[in-house]
Amino acid sequence: MNRLLCLILFAACFASASILGIEALGEENSLGGMANTAGRGFAGGAKTGDAEGVSVVNPARMAFDTKVVFNLNFFIDMTTAENDNSTYSTTNISLPSFNFSFPMGSFGAMGLSLWQHYASNMDEDIQDSALKMDAEVKYQGSVYEIVPAYAVRLPFFRMMSLGASAHFVMGNVERSLTLGPDKSEVSERDYWATNESKVNDFVSGTWEIKNHPAYYTLSTQFRGRQSSYYFSYTTPYTLQNDLTYNLRFSQLDTLIPTRSSREIEIPALLATGVNYRLYKRHNVMMDLQWRAWDSDVENIAGGWEMSKVTETQNDFMVSLGYQRDGSPLFYDSYLERTTFRFGGWMKSWYVKDVYEYGGSIGAGLPMGKKGTTIDLALQGGKRTTGGHGDWEELFFGIRVGLMGVGTWGQSRAR
After folding, report:
1. Helix/strand/coil for 365
2. How far apart are CA 79 and CA 168, in angstroms?
3. H or E segment and range at residue 12
């Protein structure tokens, strides 16, 4: 059984959409998972325009929008994890975000986002024909947030805005370990006397915020003639995950379920960014985020001698990006009306000794006269353990966003 458990833990480390924190919170989806933001290296939180829409870290930006924005995003993630002996590749498809914002003139702007903050996805079969053992490992879970937001420009200083949002958390997590019969200690001539029963260890639970309906983000934005800046603060909160553990034998015998609750203290997030505009349509931008973790994250674990906690470190991200805005004039060429982006980022994850380096390119393809855009982003990079482990992870992703722009509630020009 010990050899089989080693196979399970090995697969848990290498066969998911990302190996990062699969027993803890899972992989974090940076900055709302929007395709236009991903195309410029996840930078541009300070960028304003007619249709930038909702930002989960900077709700104040929304006050400068002049049009209604609808944004729907899809993400295809291909990951390959390697060490000296093995290689695993997986593909994952998700819907990381949905955004809607509505400007109200001098009354400010309102927005609503659905954001997949953390995700754990894995479905693998592990077999050892030499030992006649097999196992099935499956993780499926997401921490989703519904984020209503409001922003308004100051009445006597129109270059400044204030914004606030509330993050309502929901979601679930499941883990299933199905272990085949262990015959490692039985001689081959006595296999006939063993049964074919399997052991299934099934864990499921839900996510919520402890003792509070939501956590909050407050931000301020300054928009100058060429430069724009923002600063935001997101409050700390405690995630509560109520879990139920079931141990079953070939679906015939089921032990009494046990229940447990783990609590994960998420620290405050500080974020800031700058966007500098050149020659009206060229933008250079940089963003910084920092979160100081001071406690480890309790794992799902539950048995099989799995680690009880995931050690943490300070979560820091710096991103640099460039964007050339497309021309708003419909009679210009299609190439002139297309938006082009590229960027890169460096991130230290909340998981101890895990670091990520990535880059991206993207484009905003106009569709018709009304401002509807298809946003495409290609991103790739590498995750390592900073020299403290023997594995590395290469990833490549395609993000597709549909952005609809309108002028609802505004009178038409005559």
Report:
1. strand
2. 30
3. helix 2-14
What DSSP letter does each residue of 274-299 carry, written as one string? EEEEETTTEEEEEEEEEE---SPEEP
- Please identify every stretch of the chain with a pLDDT value under 50, giving residue numbers as ranges: 1-16, 131, 185-187, 190-194, 388, 413-414
- Residues 242 and 335: their CA atoms lie apart, in Å, by 52
Helix segments in 74-131, DSSP class H = none
- In 3-state terms the chain splits into helix, strand, coil percentages (rounded to 5) of 10, 55, 35
Task: Please give the Cα distance from 280 to 163 (Å, whole number).
Answer: 26
Token code pair at residue 164? 């606030």
DSSP code of residue 148: E
Q: Which of 186, 184, 151 is nearest to 53 (CA)?
A: 151
Phi then psi for residue 36, to 5 deg, are -70, -35
Spatial distance between the Cα atoms of 386 and 141, rounded to a whole number of angstroms: 27
Strand partners, 380: 359, 396
Question: Do 138 and 176 touch, CB atoms closer than 8 A?
Answer: yes
Whole-prediction pTM: 0.83
Q: In the chain, what percentage of residues exceed pLDDT 90? A: 35
Rg over alpha carbons for the chain, rounded to the nearest Å, is 24
CA distance 375 to 362: 7
pLDDT tens column, 358-391: 999 999 999 877 778 899 999 999 988 765 456 6
Q: According to the model, what pLDDT value does residue 200 have?
A: 74
Q: Are 113 and 73 in contact, with CB atoms under 8 Å apart?
A: no
Ranges assigned E (strand) in 155-281? 157-179, 199-209, 215-223, 227-234, 237-249, 253-254, 258-266, 269-278
Of 199, 161, 142, residue with least CA distance to 26: 142
Residue at 62: amino acid letter: M
Q: CA angle, corner 61, sides to 58 and 66, nearest 5? A: 150
Question: 271: helix, coil or strand?
Answer: strand
Nearest to 38 by CA among 27, 29, 48: 29
**Residue 84 to residue 79: CA distance in whole angstroms:** 17
Q: Give the pair of three-digit tokens for residue 369.
A: 């006269």
Sole residue written with tokens 């794992």: 299
| Nearest in space to 283 (alpha carbons), one of 335, 341, 351 | 341
Q: Which two tokens stand for residue 324?
A: 């050339």
Q: According to the model, what pLDDT value does residue 122 have?
A: 75
